[in-house]
Specification:
alpha+beta, Phosphorylase Kinase, domain 1, Aminoglycoside 3'-phosphotransferase, Chain: A, domain 2, 2 domains, five-stranded antiparallel sheet, three-stranded antiparallel sheet, 15 helices, 13% strand, binds adenosine-5'-diphosphate, binds the ligand CSC[C@H]1O[C@H](OP(=O)(O)O)[C@H](O)[C@@H]1O, EC 2.7.1.100, amino-acid biosynthesis, Methylthioribose_kinase, S-methyl-5-thioribose kinase activity, Kinase-like_dom_sf
């Protein structure tokens, strides 16, 4: 197949067949398009007899969620496959294996992770993943440290920044996270019952200053290679395994954006628990599991990142200046808090929402979850530059759950 065109299920089978050493000659293959994300086609190809399978992910020349009126670069498939390969080297076992990348078809062939569940779904259903904090903190510490000026050759890093220039996908984030929720933008989408909350967001100058500072950092700080969209829908999980997928938004940006993304999505689930748990005890219990996970993610990330820094003294002054490490980690925590808040707000009033909240069928319960998420998100944004400990983020979540009444 030569020119780019969106594949159909039959063509996906032909491509899978042509890959050497995967499927037996003459095997009956099945093909299903299973993409449920906002942007791409995803084909699941399997040989049910042998039990072998793989995934073909193809970029469309537009954003699937909106349609052809929103053109989008196919280069994101290159970025995604390249990022998965980098992440696989730096955090072995924590991303799917990439078998092939076809630049003409904007197609990545990768390991099938169907024996895992998408973490967002797992959390909605009350699943617990005791190894997750350990896995994701390793993923974050390794990928962020070793792609930054602290952990790699600083001239090579500048060349890597060039390879991950991702303007169109960054623009989506700049618009949908760091602009539109704070003005009456056409892309915004929210239930009419919380219009009062949206109007507050549009007129809160103190909030706008903090969002402007976070936006500026997202635009300008090439600190490390980010995943760029690390929400719980981009994580496949089972009790003993965690796999991060979908890094098409990867670019060199501020580290706190990735750490904040995962914390925000745990907090969005936290805000939705009134509906998903059977009674108050179950809710309290599950919320404390989520809070414990957030605490562990930051604490373990902090320890692992510092340990990598001790072992790899790439930059003399940055490794030895008294107080520099503590100052760096404090700024990283503050960015994490600010970006977590921004990621929560965008999922309530912006274009793309989360199932944890949108799938609450009862309008009153959904409204409560939305108001709680906004309350936590706004406070995190406002306190970000003053935060000194992850306990302050946790306290904001817990106090808000008490004070925002159903
Ligand atoms: N490696 C994989 N193994 C199994 N299913 C996958 C894999 N990658 C993606 N999927 C399925 O396709 C869906 C969309 O994939 P995703 O990468 O999130 O697409 P998008 O970039 O459009 O958001 C996932 O929610 C999951 O159900
Ligand atoms: C028009 S893209 C909206 C939104 O979708 C992306 O998420 P995903 O592809 O993982 O569903 C990303 O978060 C974008 O901001």
């Amino acid at each position: 197949m030569s020119a780019y065109h969106p594949l159909n299920e039959k063509e996906a089978i032909q491509i899978a067949r042509s890959l050497e050493g995967v499927f037996a000659e003459g095997a009956e293959l099945t093909s299903r398009e299973i993409g449920d994300g906002n942007l791409n086609l995803v084909f699941h190809i399997s040989d049910p007899v042998e039990g072998t399978s793989l995934i073909l992910k193809q970029a469309l020349p537009y954003a699937k969620v909106v349609g052809e009126s929103w053109p989008l670069t196919l280069d994101r498939a290159r970025i995604e496959s390249e990022a998965l390969i980098q992440e696989g080297k730096l955090a072995p076992g924590l991303v799917p294996a990439v078998y092939n990348y076809d630049p003409v078809l904007a197609l990545t062939v990768m390991e099938d992770l169907s024996d895992h569940v998408i973490m967002r779904r797992g959390l909605i259903e009350g699943g617990r993943y005791p190894l997750f904090a350990g896995h994701i903190s390793t993923f974050l510490a390794n990928t962020l440290f070793f792609t930054s000026d602290l952990g790699m050759n600083q001239q090579s890093k500048k060349l890597r920044v060039r390879e991950f220039i991702n303007p169109e996908l960054c623009k989506i984030t700049e618009d949908l996270i760091f602009d539109h929720p704070y003005t009456d933008a056409d892309t915004n989408s929210f239930d009419e019952t919380i219009r009062d909350e949206a109007q507050v967001l549009w007129n809160d100058g103190e909030l706008h200053l903090e969002v402007a500072l976070l936006r500026e950092k997202f635009l300008t700080q090439a600190q490390a290679l980010l995943h760029g969209d690390l929400h719980t829908g981009s994580i496949f999980i089972k009790p003993d395994s965690t796999k991060v997928i979908d890094p098409e938004f990867a670019y060199y940006g501020p580290m706190g954006f990735d750490i904040g993304a995962i914390i925000a999505n745990l907090l969005l689930n936290y805000a939705a628990r009134d509906h998903w748990d059977a009674d108050e005890n179950a809710r309290r219990d599950y919320r404390s599991y989520l809070i414990g996970t957030i605490r562990e993610i930051w604490t373990q990330f902090d320890a692992k990142f510092r340990a990598l820094w001790e072992e790899n003294k790439t930059d003399r002054l940055l490794s030895s200046a008294p107080g520099y490490k503590d100052d760096y980690m404090k700024r990283l925590l503050q960015d994490t808090v600010g970006y977590a808040g921004s990621k929560m707000v965008r999922r309530i009033v912006g274009l793309a929402h989360v199932a944890d909240i949108d799938q609450i069928p009862d309008a009153k319960s959904r409204e409560h979850a939305q108001r709680l998420a906004l309350s936590i998100g706004k406070q995190l944004i406002k306190v970000n530059r003053k935060t000194a400990s992850i306990e302050e983020l946790i306290q904001i979540a817990e106090t808000s759950a008490e004070s925002v009444k159903a």
